[in-house]
């Protein structure tokens, strides 16, 4: 592929104003598909979770999944949307091999949720949060397509030797959340795009309607970008970068398209309204196909489905099930724990917020909980290539380890060995301490003997202490700790050394 000519990002803002539009597809975690009873388990053998309805066979009749409608309403409410009193599905007609019916059952001009907003916090260089309001145009229900696998060196349909299609995903419930044009972000446009998708993902997870795994495609972002002459107040021709599957890539795709658009416009050419593919390895976009307008899809009402008319009582009942907004929750916890902005950002970034919250609830200090989850446990998670929350150590066990430290039964160094045992499945923290013989020795007899050995082996250090240089005791304490494999009570060892050499 040929690299595009780009204008340096800093120069783009000298002549152009960017406008963003984000379309996020959320795959719901319902047990069955949107219009049939087929299971939705991820990773099943290809074409084993299909039936006449999701394969589009003649005579098959769809039935709406009520759990999916409930999830759609809860998402709409969490995004401050109005919920339609009456809405219906439509057929979006287009041909593609992974679309078995040659149309997608979706919603068009009558979505279930509309006119909402989300306030997005974007950190600035000073580490403080700057708020941008992202207006939501609509959140509508639809079904997913199948999955095409293009076999060949390119990995894409152009140049493939042949293609395979897996229809397991066809018919899985989706909610598509579409923003209104986001204007006025300027140089912060890439950061706003990333922050919006990140906060939206957190909200979806908090609602419990999807696992929102970007790496598995259960949440995918389409990034629309246009440039207009600076100060014109107009919107330029947009491109849509499809299926961007990481937060970092969302930011990079916006930045790249801004630079590419500017180069095209400065050369006096026009932007082609098209879909584009994002390449994670090279950090560029390439042309996909010309973007169709709504009329090209020949939308018309789905004749096989009755309208959806959620009662106001049901909507209010679902409003009562909404969790605390994730952004508000983070602000509350940060204030309660006394974390700095940087500490809280690291906590959230590590995916350890809930683990730390549960550990603190078990009775230990916020800083102690943060120390273990973002230090020792984050390191081990990184070594294993998993999220820290996926480790086989529970918040209650972390709290118990810290309690053993606070009680003087182990120290931080020994606690790391306790975590070894916990990760190896050797039992509770107390059982690991006993089985591995990790308890700190406080017995004066054993400690006294080790102190005598250290004094005899280091007479010059002992003389310094006798002469009043108490700081030199650290060397003897280290010698005792080494002899006792780190299990000596350091405070008591110091007391014994000073007693013997006073």
UniProtKB/TrEMBL annotation:
Q: Which NCBIfam families match?
A: gatB, PRK05477.1-2, PRK05477.1-3, PRK05477.1-4
Reaction catalysis annotation: L-glutamyl-tRNA(Gln) + L-glutamine + ATP + H2O = L-glutaminyl-tRNA(Gln) + L-glutamate + ADP + phosphate + H(+); L-aspartyl-tRNA(Asn) + L-glutamine + ATP + H2O = L-asparaginyl-tRNA(Asn) + L-glutamate + ADP + phosphate + 2 H(+)
Q: Which Gene3D superfamilies match?
A: 1.10.10.410
GO molecular function annotations of the record: ATP binding; glutaminyl-tRNA synthase (glutamine-hydrolyzing) activity; transferase activity
What is the source species? Nocardioides panaciterrulae
Q: Reply yes or no: does the keyword ATP-binding apply.
A: yes
**Protein name as it appears in the record:** Aspartyl/glutamyl-tRNA(Asn/Gln) amidotransferase subunit B
Name the SUPFAM superfamilies for this protein.
GatB/YqeY motif, Glutamine synthetase/guanido kinase
Gene name, per UniProt, is gatB
Q: Does the keyword Aminoacyl-tRNA synthetase apply?
A: no
